[in-house]
Amino acid sequence: MASALFPSPYFSQPGSPCFCGKGKPFSKCCGSNKQHRKPPHGVIIKKGALNVKQCQQLVSYAAKQDSKRLAVSHKENTEPTSLERQSSAIDMGNKHSTLVSLVEKLLNIAAAEMNLQIKHFTPPTLMHYGSGDYYHQHSDSEVFNPNLKKWEKKVDRDISLLLYLNDDFDGGDLLFNYFNYTYSPRQGDLVIFPSDHRYLHEAKAVTKGSRYVIVSWAATLPC
Questions:
Q1: Fewest beta carbons within 10 Å, which of 54, 81, 84, 186?
Q2: Residue 96: which domain range?
Q3: How many CB atoms lie within 10 A of CB 47?
Q4: Each residue of 8-17: pLDDT tens digit?
């Protein structure tokens, strides 16, 4: 799992042994260009982690709430209108505790399967991506230092969580850039993956409709 596999913010080394441990070249394993393949090592997708009724209730509530346009984190320049990101955070009011309980439960289940223990987690946010909204490629915990030519951890995050509440929109795919792996969100699906730079990812632009997704991050205790 050495970061030497990814020496720059945009390029991996196709001929290097894949970090998953199977012994295959990265380009023929987790970095394959094949479509309709299993998620790369470390990416966990749980279909229907939240049932349709719960999803619909949260979306209906969120659609009536106030929202705030977000800036990009980990950077000095954090104006609300940023070319790196276009999205909004929903003020969930008295429903926020519901999100916290839900995410805590899902994180603990996932951590047990991954043989990890949660130290703490970030209170979840329900994000709204309207038509044209996106989030360009980024790491959830690390920033690339071009002077030192290495990634540096800036936030205490080890696990990233995405819980999709609807799928009645166009676009909005989740792309893991290094792995050439694209996931098309489905209602109720949970996606969990490591927060470090290997899992550089982006939310492709929504081209029609609205996408609602719960996001959170967790720090884990050393094994």
A1: 81
A2: 39-220
A3: 8
A4: 544 556 788 8
